[in-house]
Amino acid sequence: MALFYKSTRSDGYTVRASEAILKGLSEDGGLFVPTEIPRLKSTMEELVGCTYQEVALEVLQAFLTDYTEEELQSCIRKAYDEKFDDPYIAPLVKVGDVYFLELFHGATIAFKDMALSILPHLMTIAARKNNVKNEIVILTATSGDTGKAALAGFADVPGTRIIVFYPKGGVSKIQELQMTTQKGNNTNVVAIEGNFDDAQSGVKAIFEEKGLKKEMLAKGMQFSSANSINIGRLVPQVVYYVYAYAKLLEHGEIAKDALLNITVPTGNFGNILAAYYAKEMGVPIGKLICASNENKVLFDFFRTGTYDKNRDFILTASPSMDILISSNLERLIYTIAGQDAEVNARLMAELKEKGKYEITVEMKKNLGDFLGGYAGERETFEMIRKTYEQTGYVMDTHTAVAASVSEVYRQKAEENRPMLIASTASPYKFVGNVMAAIDKKYSDVDEMDLIQPFKALSHVEIPAAVEEALLGQVLHTKVCKVPEMINVVKEILEKEQ
Ligand SMILES: *Cc1c(COP(=O)(O)O)cnc(C)c1O
Q1: Catalytic amino acids?
Q2: From ligand 1's centre to the CA of 317, what distance in Å?
């Protein structure tokens, strides 16, 4: 059965999956959502024993109905291969009595690889299907991890070029090096003097610039997005929640049909929304716990029903979650409004004008099993130290926010369901803060000098991604102010490649 996508901000037109992936964002500024969430074809028992690639095929087939099975197979083969340093692609690790779903075994050692290793392939097929001859220009704002994962995914992909903006000083040293050493003729990396929200709003404004759009079409170019607003990012993220449940069942860690709680360290709300989609597809999932750091807009939202970004932006040790405007929340708002585009559009307009909006009591009731929690820097560091001392397992700062929130939840909860924690980055990526959490004596040591000590302490091999960042030559040094972003884009588009 064919599935269509529509905008969260207006009714009247629908597009096929491949068109939604190509466009990234709807013309009215809304996000594409499927007109309904498809059910899984197989039962969880039937998925027992399936490989990651097999589960991926089932999920992608359900959502991306205008791709053929051969096309999806080819994308899956190219995406989930030896770039991942674990044959399970997303291995589960039991630590104490919770399960960490390690989503960082891909090329850039953050969970963004789960979707960004397949998106370029989905996009080039989408271009072919829709007879698009234009060069696809990927324009992306990053809080650190998306940028590198998108660069790695799109580097030297014919018919594409990519421009990444990141907040100068807002990412870890290793994250920055990973981006600035990126090779590939079609890659461009620019630091901005501002924070992630500035970068994201700047990119959104460039997307909406009608004049630029015309100029580009005349040159045979068009924009698309690799940010998690693209449905082609969201759908591949549903896969690992389905897969994780099947694996827990396979290993006798969960009883048939028993509910699994999931805690997700959240920034732009993409990862946790994928867990919600998995639940709607039929995976027995209980609570969806949204973990924030000190930028706790989402925690306040789930508690009060008011989303208010008017507050100080705090730089934390979990920079990929330093976000005050969680773009993907719009998809949930649309859903809890009873798929009412008008209501959603009004709330999003309020967000843009006043920086806040309030949902109705009715809508709040529809939030169902979502729950917010947050962890401050102290709790986050304490979780890393405690877990290391008690078990030898070392997690990164983002995962630690989730682990801390999940621990508080489990102490108070009236049920004792198994808990899955989405583990979103390799501790190597944030080794400075991870080591400082384990022992204060590392606080003043340069991050680069902590890589070897961390290896000795954690017994985890240094990932290839870190070696490459350390040995690579810095190729991108451009820095600009926020209002200059559009001109920087224009300059880059003038370049021959
Ligand atoms: C992007 C990212 C997050 C936040 O994920 P969202 O889908 O934006 O909510 C959390 N942790 C890490 C390490 C990330 O890279």
Answers
A1: 112
A2: 13
At residue 368, does pLDDT exceed 80?
A: yes
Name the DSSP letter for residue 210.
H
The 10 Å Cβ neighbour count of residue 274 is 27
Q: How far apart are CA 462 and CA 247, in angstroms?
A: 27
130-149 pLDDT, tens digit each: 999 999 999 999 988 899 99
Protein residue closest via CA to atom 15 of ligand 1:
145
Residue nearest to atom 1 of ligand 1 (CA): 320
**Nearest atom, ligand 1, residue 269 CA:** 9
Task: Calculate how far, in angstroms, residue 53's C-alpha sits from the geometric centre of ligand 1.
Answer: 23
DSSP string, 235-269: HHHHHHHHHHHHHHHHTTSS-TT--EEEEEE-SSS
pLDDT tens-digit series, residues 282-329: 999 999 999 999 999 999 999 999 999 999 999 999 999 999 999 999
| DSSP annotation of 85 | S
Mutate to test the pocket of ligand 1, among 103, 263, 316, 321 (most ligand atoms within 8 A of CB): 321
- Alpha carbon of residue 13 to chain centroid: 27
Distance from C-alpha of 81 to C-alpha of 83, rounded to nearest angstrom: 5
Of the candidates 345, 119, 318, the residue with the CA atom closest to the CA atom of residue 232: 119
Single-letter amino acid code for the residue at 26: S
